[in-house]
Amino acid sequence: MPYAKYDGKDPIYKDKEQLLKKTGISITDPILPPKNLVKLTGTLSEFKGLFCYAPLADGAYLSDEQKQKQQNQLRKGALLATLNGNSIAALAGLGHANGNDRSDEVDAQYITAKLNDTITLKGWIGFYKFNDGDQVEVVAEKHEDHYEVYAMLKPSEQIISLIPPCLGGRKQAFKHFYIPYFIFYVICVLLMNYFFFDFSLENLIIGFSTLGVMLGAAFFMVYKNSLATHVTLAERIFTVLGWQDVTNINLGKISKQYIAKLIAQGKYAKEYNNKTDPHIRPPKSGDGWFFFYYDPEVLCKKGKPPLRVKNKKRK
Prior knowledge:
- By secondary structure, the protein is of the alpha+beta class.
- It folds into two domains: 12-56 and 104-167 and 250-314, no CATH class; 64-97 and 170-228, no CATH class.
- Helix content is 42%, strand content 19%.
- Strands 2-3-4-6-5 form a five-stranded mixed β-barrel.
- Helix 6 (201-228) packs across helix 7 (230-240).
């Protein structure tokens, strides 16, 4: 069977072309960005899922003109790094500009299903396994022959599975995605000076400035694109669901909080089966592969941001 068995042995196909060649199954790329999101509720049937890399990251929402502009800016950064003698940074920037990285490919689950036996669902979500007969909520967009799914919820278990890389509003997504990039930048400069140059204050300044010019421009473009793309989509999904303070939502942290609550109530098994559980429930860290627990008591309270609730508990 080409469809997922959720047994820890399922392949993740390289792209839709490889999937078609090996299984004969034809799938579509994500439809981004959606224009009119709606919320549907009902009973799930004929659920099928498989795992495949999809264009969901940096350039997924960009037009050809925007992609070309981004590549030109990265090439300018690479040239500037070369003129300043930083060949390593230049090669990295040129590789990104030429599309040699795989940042546009994110592993996700392509699903098809029926809702109430009449509505056809298709789309890309996280690795959570839904079952026929589940009562679900769906955030989707209507097309001629189907509804394109961007999030699916199972209220009985308070689990939400979203299209990657959606996981939070802009205030929280910045911390999750971009602070690690800054740490990476600092480490790169230190390592380049340690292995290739004299470890001096002058070389550190040169390293931070030249690499900063290129990475700074790339960082700004990626951050700007993220705000206009998957971060905005996450906030739109949360809004359709009726959640409050959407810019401040971080599903990873809320999921971790909720698991702590379940453990205290004796409702969460601490032993975790690394083969099957990654498709059934988030680990104690709160982060499944783009599926999470959610807590309506936190997310639906007006005027009380999710993270403030957590901070109050610490006092």
